[in-house]
User: Fold these one by one.
Assistant:
Number 1:
Amino acid sequence: MSAIAYTIPQMRSLVTHNFGLKLVSGLIALAIWYRYSLMSQLNVTQVFERHLKVIHKAPQLSVTHPLEDALVRITLSGRRLDLMQVDRQLEAQVDLAIVHSAIGEVSASVEAAFDPALGLQVVSIEPKTVKITVRSAEPRADPPLSGSPSADTAATPTPSPSPPVLD
């Protein structure tokens, strides 16, 4: 295995040859790095639009709200990198944990749900509250259970299997 060995005059030549161009390109690279690393630390504000999600709904209740097809606007403030990360996990939620048996119209506040470790601040949520109509869920209609067949099934004969034909 041969190693490349440079003498001192050859090393000096590598550094000093086109030194001005090397210095300028190094300064440009340093300026670009500094600009983008500094920009990632600055606080910026960004608006996200999300569909409203109802959480902690009791199973015996059905819920409707006026934003089923509309979007909630959530404005967050924080570092640019954190805002890019929150884009995948951000949700607009209405928590119905306190509504267990109330029937009728309920006013609930809309909340932004995301990882609090990101250090983002909620600037605004539009709308802040939403009126939700809560109804009891429709009971299922189960067929009546009885020991005797109904009149419809008693009148229709069941076909008997035909014997196999041998040739």
Number 2:
Amino acid sequence: MEQLALFDTMERKIARRCEHVLADARREADSVVEAARRDADVARREALQQLDTELCELADQCRMRARGQAALDTLGFQQAAADDVLRRVEAELKRVARSDSFPGILDALVDEVLAVAPQEDIILEVPAEQAARCRDRALGIGGVTVLANSGLTDGVVARDGQGRFRFVNTLSSRFARLRGDARKLCINRLFEERAAAHD
């Protein structure tokens, strides 16, 4: 019996000890789980904050790209509109070159050329349909030869016989020299003044 009592006592001690070890293990496990939850919560908040920061940066980049693309699209539209206006101006210059008022304009273009040309051995190339009139006009001017040029429609080309001097004075060449400034002026007049009016 004594042995049974000893076994029972030992069994109870072992059972209490197991309960203490188990309770300690549970407390430790709960502590580890709680620490893991805290760490996971901190990591989740940091990840969410990082993600929020990255999303804000991405949204800013998207807005900047959209603004840049909108500016390019706007500029493209403005340039296309200005180019359309300039094409209409070119068409109007061609119409003027075929009009009844062109002989007077051609006379002015020829006078400009003669004012800067050397005084001897000048060859004037003019539109074929204006050649006879220009020859009659040049009769009183010494050293000037007038030639018909079927490829020339809107002005005069002056040159000397030795090839040292060449001056092109046509409506299209004058417009070509002003085209860049005319394009800027079109864009300013068509768009920037309207934008200022809306502000």
Number 3:
Amino acid sequence: MSQHASAPAQQPSTPVAVRWAAGLLAVYSLMVLAHVFTLSPRDSEFDASLLRTAIGRMQGAAAMAWGVARGRSWGRWLTLALGGLWAGFCALALVEYAGTPAVAPRQTLVFGPVGIMALLLLGGAIGCLLVPRSRLWFRRAAV
């Protein structure tokens, strides 16, 4: 019996760009939840609606990260669509907050760096998924 006959079929390894995209989405999902707790005032009632929204975004980002890491095409398309939408809203919010002096200084100091990090994380994940090697890998995984 030859060695090649007993060896299992070798799966193509996950491209580095796809692993980076999944990691960036996982970090983004944790950052979304941490951001809610940094915005909550220490001396007043916690806003539960902010927490519900953040948990929904965290679950969405975690699902995208899981789908991308597993090579599912729905994870890639969801990341491109929903991640692009979230990044667009974040960019609009950054532009809006930068132009309004009436925003509380604490929220501006917290939202500015977090908004920029969110843009970088989502933009990086989307960019990693648009690399030709990762696009080819998702096409092969779908077949």
Number 4:
Amino acid sequence: MSNVEYLPKHHQRYSLRELPSAAKKTLKGFLDTFIHLLSIQKKPLPAAKDLPYDDKCPPSLDSEQAKLCKDIFDQTQKRADKIQGKAEKYSGFIPVVLSLALGTLSIVIREPGLPNSYRSVCIWVACLGCTALLLAFFGCLRCLRVQTVDEPYVGAVIDTDKHEVRKFDSAFIPFSYLSCALRNGAQIDEMADYLRATEFLFFIGVVTIIVGSLPLLFLIKPSEPKTPQVAIQNVEEIKAAISEGFTANLALLNSLDARMRLLEAHKTLAPARPHKKTPAPHACDCSRESK
């Protein structure tokens, strides 16, 4: 026997006859996740069976089994962290894509050269894409809202019912890790459903927006700079107003020229007035005044 027989086989492709059934399954799964996203959830029901643990007769576990229980708990926590990390990334991507979609929608509404048929279709497609993105963001919020922090706490040391410290039991801590892992697993499955719905809606929103905005590359033509053109009306009235203004300015210039000539003639005809000189004080007078 060769080692190849122990390896798992690759995924088999669907044939053409099986494609309709595969599409139906995919559509049904999407509808289930979409309904689960919008529905109001009740409190989870308790498990049908509890773990086989009894305080009076605790089972015996060796160190390897106890370590395995702790590893199972750690694996559930890692899975929860991965799902929360994906949800946080989607919550950051979705607003960016939504803002781009709204910008494209504003261009479609304001562009005057687009045909009305394409404008109406593009508006409906953009509204569908924006709605899908908003629902995807809502799925991210519901995914992040699920609380999965369930781990051994005070009850692992103190019996809250009896208000006593528990006796040391090597099997109680591993079983508490297993019970926490099981409860976290149910909550993580709910988070995975919300994240799956978010991925579906995000894909639908992005595809619809891209398909709706691709024709804009061919319909919108680059606008050329246009020189401002002023429509001139009533040319005869404009000419008459210009001529009237010109004659008025000419008359004003003639009047100013005549006044300047009169001033120059008046200066030439008027005699020059002699300047009176004040006599200097005499020396004798100064001596008399000093005396």
